[in-house]
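Glycoside hydrolase family 3 C-terminal domain-containing protein: structure, please.
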Amino acid sequence: MSDPVTDPVHTDPSRTDGERLAALVAALTTEERIGLLHQYQAPVPRLGLAGFRTGTEALHGLAWLGTATVFPQALGLAATWDPELVRRVGEAVADEVLAARDRGAGRNVWAPVVNPLRDPRWGRNEEGWSEDPWLTGLLATAYARGLAGDGPRLRTAPTLKHFLGYNNETDRCTTSSGLPPRVLHEYELPAHLPALRAGAAVAVMPSYNLVNGRPAHLSPLIGDVLRAAAPDDLLVVSDAMAPGNLFGLQGFHPDGPTAYAHAVRAGLDSFTQDDDRPEATLDHLREALRRGLLTDADLERAVRHVLSVRLRLGEFDPGPAPEGSLDTPAHRALAREAATRSLVLLRNEGGVLPLRDVRRVAVLGPLADTVLTDWYSGTPPYTVTAREGLAERVEVVHHDGADRIRLTSLVTAVAEPRSGEPLRLDGGEGDVFALLDWGGGAFTLRSERTGLHLDEGPDGTLACTAPGPGGWEVRQTLRLEAANPAGGPEGPYHLVQVHTGRRVGVRADGVLALVEEPDGCPFWIDRVSSGALEAARAAAAADVAVVVVGDHPMVNGRETEDRADLELPAAQRHLVRMVRSANPASVLVISSGCPFAVTWAAENVPAVLWSAHGGQEYGRALADVLFGDAEPSGRLTQTWYRSADDLPGLLDYDVIGSGATYLYFEGDPLYPFGHGLGYAEPVYGEPEAVVDGGRVTVRVPVANPGDRPLEEVVQVYTRQLASRVRVPVRALRGFARLRLGPGEEAVAEIGFDAADLARWDTVRERFTVEDAPREVLVGRSAADIRGTAPLDVPGEPPAVRRGTWSAAGYEEQRGTALCPLTPERGDAVRFTEPGARLLFRDTDLTGASGIRVLANADRDTELRVHLDGPDTGPAAVLRVPAGTGPHDFAEAVAVLAPGTAGVRDLYLVCEVPGAAVATVTLD
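Here you go.
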């Protein structure tokens, strides 16, 4: 060990940050550098470096470290369409992180999540901001700026999650997200880059999945794009346990040293592996260095990124660290404001809302008297449920809408002897449980006596001890599996634990326990009372019925679990129908981290509201909006579809080719992107669009003719009316919030750069504004357009293909998948189905007599070239010899048939799956 350094340069504030950082990195030994590359960074006492840990979860509040203010989920914050409010929430969360350092909170925070919400079935949907990449980037930048602060030093160091192409939990560590160049540059990267370019986020976390066949943790885009976008050194941290996948589940490399060396060379700086046990990781890095797979320069570069963030946090500056505060009155008020402004009024027919002259309200449903938290929530200091918030204003009656049941096995009933003891069979009548349906076939049983849920004990016995389903491994949910196909609705059923698939059995002493043997014990369900009927009776006796339904953030859609469909749980659908039939003055409130296909309610329930899970002040926020003390001001940042049938496959990331998201979807959504009603109806005038240099300014007058205040989100979209490729049906360019009193009028002004109209040109391999007609669309949502105006901006003519181009730059494909050209960089296209093909439009064959491809195949294969259609006679046949492996690409050459001159559409067709092509060249 080297001697202690006295007065080290890195602690001298008179030096520049660059000088301080360079001196610190240079002073480290090789072993000290290696010790800094794990999540739990080793201290270096001789240089005065303390230990440091990356990764404090702060998605919508400080998580996992005890009591902290719980704000609405990120999707709910996004629904405010208010970057300034989002920034203030980020500031409050940073305060609480700083105040919780004595609990173990570190200042590198893992938030925000910037994956655009391509598919609403994604289990982590509530973590994101929007399906629109521009809006995602805007709001995530605001949150990150709040977390980081505006001072010369960072208050916390925000980390963007998760790079790249990550919207599925199903097999998330082994599936590959196919991102063609246009999808990458027009959809994915615009969500990730703004917070980096603004300097608001200073770190990035790659995702678990592969992208175009290469693990995201090894993506060359980390160095080529992310670091080029960041104004300062960028820290790249791995996701938890993801490095081990590189040579484990993914099998991309043969061993740890090879995989970890590649990761460092690709840009990974910090390994989140094996929790606080860094030994194996550091051994892999030492071995990689010994083998020559890593160099001292590689280590120095990674360590610089690690220490740069600590320097910018002020860790090496003299003086005290910044202070924070937890659970202050200001934070509580902000939680209420955020929850109130996140509520979205989806439907309001018949004047039910706002509530007036109401004395008695029935507050019904499984979410009516609970505030649910998700995996990334903190522990709220208190909660206000919907029932409690309304009860502060009027008389309330309540029922959760769940059936009460008894379980019997033949003639013996299930009982709960004493609180916390295992359930058992006895000869009595048996105890009553509430049966709660959370969708996806998952149920929970809640003791009527104690209000606690059935849970698995350490010995596999079952007792009602849990406050509800939760934890990384959710062990409180059951599936009802018919034990006799001829049985009725009461059973018999096997009770099957969802997490393990084990059945509930009965031990010899009568205790209920999970068993390994396949038979288990069948149970009959004796319904004591119908929850929907009891709720309907309460609704009938009230002036208004408010039924609160939605998802449980820990069940049927969460990290590690995608949803299979968009439906509300069956019991909740039945409950909504029963309440509506009992009281026409019904309000449906949906509290969820995802959209639902509530098609029946959208036509039959007079008023429908949605919010994400709204945090500790949810109930008061809901009451503020229901009674009209606050205007409904939230807007959807995600399309609500009528059915999962409107969606492409969960693993189809080509939003352009599949027609996904509001940008490309041409169907009729249930509720469109940007939708949200108020209690006042605006009147829009004629918009105008003015182009001045490279700036477009859209102005539109908006009036409030009503007798209530109006809060309107004026949205501006553009549409390109002609192109040789598929372009968005509409694309959001900006918005403005207007607050108008009764009778007031104002002009909304929204500006954007003409360069924002560019699309990624796969021929030129850069962004290009096409020479094409366009128009501006102004309105209340992507579907509710109140006016249009022509938009004339200069552009470039379409390019034609000549020479050599990347096969991944196709216009259309069928039966292909993107794959790596080499392990390190480059993309190719593999033909995966018989008759698979690629289409390259506007290919200039003038003067060309031959064609070459750089290709790979696992057997001798033919690729056919067709012109102007896939079924025309082949213009050439390329013979690709079998290679020695997936990265063994070689040239195949063919002569073009006579008469192939001119600008033509070129198809490349392969009848035998397995071949791949990287480039195409005309000679």
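Notes: The first helix runs from residue 17 to 27.
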